[in-house]
User: What shape does this take?
Amino acid sequence: MMVLSDFGSRRPAPTCGGAAVLDLALCLILAVTVVGLLLLAL
Assistant: This one.
């Protein structure tokens, strides 16, 4: 989970609506990837 915290601190907070949507999509993709890797590890 170190990568997630570092990834979150590295990105600036979204200010406009477009950036918020883009950040949400990126976060969703990252979450799905992490969950998939965890399931594969099991």
